[in-house]
Sequence to fold (891 residues):
Amino acid sequence: MRNIATQDNSELEAIEQREWRESLDYVIQQGDRERVHRLLSSLRNHARAAGVGLPFSAVTPYINTIPVEDQTPLPGSQEIERRIKSLVRWNAMAMVVRGNRASDGIGGHISTYASAATLYEVGFNHFFRGKNADGGGDIIYFQGHASPGIYARAYLEGRLPVEKLHNFRRELAPGGGLSSYPHPWLMPDFWEYPTVSMGLGPIMSIYQARFNRYLEDRGLKKPSSAKVWAFLGDGETDEPESLGAISLAAREKLDNLIFVINCNLQRLDGPVRGNGQIIQELEAIFRGAGWNVIKVIWGSDWDPLLAADKDGLLVKRMGEVVDGQYQKYAVEDGAYMREHFFGADPRVLDMVKHLSDEQLKKLRLGGHDPLKVYNAYKAAAETTGQPTVILARTIKGYGLGEAGEGKNITHQQKKMNESDLRVFRTRFGIPISDDEIADAPFYRPADDSTELQYLRERRKALGGYVPSRSVRVEPLHAPIEPLFDEFYKGTEGRKASTTMVFVRMLSKLLRDKEIGELIVPIIPDEARTFGMESLFRAIGIYSHVGQKYEPVDMDTLLYYKEAQNGQILEEGITEAGSMSSFIAAGTAYATHGVNTIPFFIYYSMFGFQRVADLIWAGADSRVRGFLLGATAGRTTLAGEGLQHQDGHTHVYSLATPNCLSYDPAYAYEIAVIIQDGIKRMYRDQESIFYYLTVMNEQYEMPPMPEGSRDGILKGMYRLRPTTNPNAKLRAQLFGSGAILNEVLTAQKLLEKYDVAADVWSVTSYQELYRDGHGCDRWNMLHPGETPRLSYVGQCMKDAPGVLVAASDYLKVLPGSIDQWMPRRMRSLGTDGFGRSEDRQRLRDFFEVDSRFVVLATLAELAQDGKLDRKVVAQAIKDLDINPEKLNPAKS
Ligand SMILES: Cc1ncc(C[n+]2csc(CCOP(=O)(O)OP(=O)(O)O)c2C)c(N)n1
Ligand SMILES: [Mg+2]
Fold:
């Protein structure tokens, strides 16, 4: 009896469901979507009022977002586009296979592009706008591992000669090669944006899209319909940077931004979410964040099946299969799919009885169907008020067949044997004969072939080839020198910190008629810490919507002013986001032809230590601008302790080849460095950027010594020579940043020990190091010529005495120039974890105060036999130094 009742119930429910659906269909067919929305939400409210709460769900069924009825036909010739795509596929694969035959282990990826080919080709033929288009064209972040496909297309376009393809990943080959991934540093006419460190492309693209708006809102660029496209892998979305800034994109209504996530359900080792569904997971995340989500899961082959699925049984089945299983269907044959996918429900199985196993195997997925992809891109491009993400389902290694399609090893598949090649060739109809196939030759049809004519015509219509990087900006010629005059004079007794000096300098630059509007201050919620709040009112904080509220401090002079033409990028607590803005602003000279000059000021510890990989990406992008690590110095930032006190970012920054790093002590040093920096980057158009540390210790800023300019820039100059050069005991002392004052005090204290010391200000160990190695290298390679003398060597040529350096950074920093010193140099530095303490105790703890400079100098003299060791022992007592104190480097 019970069974019959259950059966009755389920039949009743099925009828009920059908009737409700038919009623809804009736409303849908009227064509008024808003009416459907209203109806459903009133039903939901009605149910809620009756106590039936619907569970929250940000996901829609596991089917395409765009219904078949809403599709528009693909313009152009599908057939020619398919042939072009096949040629790109072949050449991309051949590039990797040939490369690895010529040089085993050279690497490269076949399967990423193989899965993404349609996603790119639809873009190339119909959407990506080149530099001649409105607004200078689109900005495209190509997925790094798909680079072979992008090169293969450029080869067909006639932009890359075949020799370059032969030298994929062999950049040092005669005639040059192609870089493994998108690197503007290595291919400055081709690649625009580096992407291969996963997660950075997505976050950079978000801030790029926002920066485009900023330029428009501030009148620095005409509004345009240009888009920012970011192509990423589904595995890549596990990187925190990929998803970490998506809410900003929605909040700022960035409808100029389109993410395309290639959901091949696999990453390097295996499935992205074997036991789940990455597409559904991403849909929920993006929808929750306010994005327009377009799922492109099933290709047109599935449309008739879905149309016949009146009871939603197929959709239900599609939604219950996990990704690991979907991957299995991709590698198995049609019979397996029939049995295991459709066969789970006899009614679903029945729906495919008219299809052969072979036809089942060939049912295409959405990301491989140009029509579906075209419609998704079109909808994305037409979306207003929201960014769009396209979740396109594909198969990793599509087309590789037995050689790797859908297999777990496919990411690293680099080799194909003759029979694999033959299958690939036949599948994609590449006109290469059996005799030649083993060689995997590149194939390019004649220039006047239908394919190449079509391809050229499409790119012309869309504004030129992409990717393509060019610098068309006019060099800046504004006379900025007078802006810095006041800083050369010193503060005449008043105390100031280098941070205060910098902020004053920035304010002057901002007020300048010529370059003021080009300055882009970027701050991650730390303006008050650095005494920059006066800028809020003066130049405004950028907000696309202006200020919709009355700020609580409206009645004060320095109120928190947001404005549509605001100039400050107040990013909130995100160094990664701020750095992405810095990259967008610092590459605008190439992207937009605008010389924006970013100044990104942040807590020094949270720069190179926190977002070094983004800084690296900026360096690769040929970024220009100034990074300012404020509250810097392990012992200069008092109180904050271990997590905040930076004593090492100058060591990290040394590793970035085009970053010039300075640890200046005085106002005039900063003035010289920034002025020269603007000249080198924006007048001379050098692809360099700057890292300056600034501190919060206040002291008097002296006037600039005559003739020191060159030395400041090169890295060192003699600041205060001894008044007693003929003394028997001599020393050379080197100080940087706030520790320079300790060294000057030591110079005085040493007089009591009859030691006459010269004091040098070292503004940049990094520049000295680079110069020293540059000279050594040149001398090694030119044995027959007059040897070059390093700048350190020049400075030290006639400098007598022992050598002692002290800095607020690791000992290795001064140690890095040791080899160009005429004699052994002792380095004092701040190796170890910081402490919450005041400056004086910190400098005692880290052994970098004036007392330790004195002690080190005396110890060096004793070691040279110039001084009795008893004097050193006495000095330890006089200076009140505890010889048994903890070693800060280890405690
Ligand atoms: C930060 C970072 N970590 C790791 C890697 C190494 N890596 C390169 S590709 C890849 C897998 C990519 O998977 P997915 O994002 O899904 O891209 P697909 O090739 O499947 O399109 C990994 C782990 C990297 N390039 N960057
Ligand atoms: Mg993947």
Remarks:
- The mean pLDDT is 96.
- The first helix runs from residue 2 to 29.
